[in-house]
Design brief:
Layout lengths: L31 H9 L8 H5 L5 E4 L14 E12 L10 E7 L2 E7 L4 H7 L5 E7 L1 E3 L2 E5 L3 E3 L1 H5 L4 E4 L8 H12 L11 H7 L4 H9 L19 H27 L10 H9 L6 H15 L5 E6 L5 H14 L3 E5 L3 H11 L8 E4 L5 H13 L4 E4 L13 E7 L6 H8 L6 E6 L5 H8 L3 E5 L9 E7 L3 H13 L3 E5 L7 H19 L3 E4 L5 H13 L4 E4 L12 E6 L7 H8 L9 E7 L5 H12 L3 H12 L1 H4 L2 H4 L9 H21 L6 H12 L3 H8 L2
Parallel strand pairs: 4-7, 10-15, 10-16, 11-13, 11-14, 12-13, 14-15, 17-22, 18-20, 18-21, 19-20, 21-22
Antiparallel strand pairs: 1-9, 2-3, 2-5, 3-4, 5-8, 6-7
Length: 714
Amino acid sequence: MTDAPAPTPLRPTILDPLFAPARTLPGIGPKAAPLIERLLGSPEQAARIVDLLFHLPQGGVARQMKGSIAEAPPGEPVTLGVTVVAHRPPQPGAGRRPHRVLVEDATGDISLVFFGMPRARIEKMLPLGSHRYVSGRIDLWDGHRQMVHPSRVTDEAGLAALPAVEPIYGATEGLTSRAISKLAHAALDRLPVLPEWQDPAWLARQGWPAFADALRAEHRPEEAPPPRREGAEAPPRPPARQRLAYDELLASQLALALLRARQRRKPGRVNAGDGHLAGRIEAGLPFGLTGAQARAVAEIRADLASDRRMLRLLQGDVGSGKTAVALLAMAHAVEAGRQAALMAPTEILARQHHERLRPLAGPLRLRLMTGRDRTAERRATLADLAEGQIDILVGTHALFQESVVFRDLGLAVVDEQHRFGVHQRLALGAKGEAVDFLVMTATPIPRTLALTFFGDMDVSVLDEKPAGRQPIRTITIPVERIDEVVAGLERALARGERVYWICPLVAESEFVDLAAAQERFEDLAGHFGAAVGLIHGKMPGPDKDAAMERFAAGTTRILVSTTVVEVGVDVPEATIMVIEHAERFGLAQLHQLRGRVGRGSAASSCLLLYRGPLGQVARARLEMMRDSEDGFRIAEEDLRLRGEGEVLGTRQSGLAAFRLASLESDGGLLEAARDDARLVVERDPGLRSERGQALRVLLYLFEREAAIRLLGAG
């Protein structure tokens, strides 16, 4: 029996004006249309009016004067009254040099900088000797104060006509913040009257406005936000912004609560036997389980033994022993006469799971299936799977294919969940009857993110490392001292050690990354000859496997790599990790890479090579890496420094990052939204009450239609 998706319900017509194309707004002609698409659209979806309304200002400039040039704080939006002193246009043929205009007041002078704007237009806007009011941000360039592309230049009469606060929007070349503000005002005029989906008592207690009033307050602010000083905590967000953030968080949590309720509502099956297989496997493990592992196994077994569907997230730090927990969980399912599947995001990882499980699996019949299997091999695997001759199938997304039929799939273990997403999880669940789910993450996920993206799951945490794991010494070294590092490697190789050398991410191009890796490989091969191997993302699969096998066997002793080795790769003899240009990597990624060493009994070290000068965020990252090996602490810091979309890799994997909410500022609202969502689903599982109907509108507004489909597909 499989879960056929219900037909997609229609979006309520009340929302049609908001999902109309943005180009239908007055003021968007043929010139502005492609710019709006570049700012707010995507290859799959043209920009819509709702996208413009949800593109909230990042700040605002108050109309009143902000003092003098000398006192204006760099980096803050200001309005200054100035006199135009001199024009300095670029010399003919000087390429993309800017036109600079020197202006002054009684306290000093400043350059206004314009790129690519016709000289005549600049001279007309800022005639020599005239008095003008300019708004924008001041920054320092080469020790001089400047304002690049002021957001507004006006005279006395123009200043008097301005709004009290001018909102500042994230813009794109050719489309100014002011033009976006005009379009946002036109979009506000299209706002329909929507039903109130929030509980009135909760709104009154928080002092929040209605949804439409909150949007208007954001796009037509009456006072500028207070400036945020470097290192200081963010000031509390205004009530309108909190209201909008809570709406978005509630839509997200309600969608997860509906998914969870649907999974729970489906009858489960008892998926645990008498423990004889799991007991034999545990007795044969070359190490004893940690307290955290034993606790997680007990939690999973209790879920498997109940007649409710299991949806459990297993989070553990790098090297905390998730694989052993997953193996024991799968053994319990096999005891009950069911089959298990372990799905990994990449072929290297799937092969490695298979290699790692094989010596531990005892009597369990294990098989690997990837997209590279030969036809005859694949046919045999499929036949054995359908006949129940395979207990555990390990593979990649190849397991989703229609031709893959299990005799009786009972447990699906998904490694590295956020590379898959809910749809694939459901597709794998459709391969059997009442399939239990165990999802494993490679590094800890901060609590707020776990609630946001895995709020439909119970959580088991592995917060202890197996006995015998050595701490990893982490050192930061400026890249200018690379020769000392190479000399150190020579001594390490003489002691029989093995080394990973990770090359930097250059921009977003695999080709440039590849060039960097190739160059470093050739440079190291000049020192160490055939002891150096290379692995990168563009290699064909068999070549990658061969390169990994040579390193694991010790044929090569230094493996130069792009970030292919980031997740799960396991060579216990590797004791040194060199990360070049460590300042370009995120914290979680650095922690993952460091976790590739320290897997054996020998002392290990991680060398973070960086190129200075370091920005504030990069310095904070490297210091955190040097000071801590605690993945849970590192995950929270990563969220603080980078924001949720990047921590989860959602920029690439298409999970919806928030547009109105920020987990750094609104994390406290998330728990309230989760509790509210769970209560709604308990009391009104079909969303049929008056508030339930309004909440359906909320789900559509924030494009969580999949949750509405679940209502019809229960």
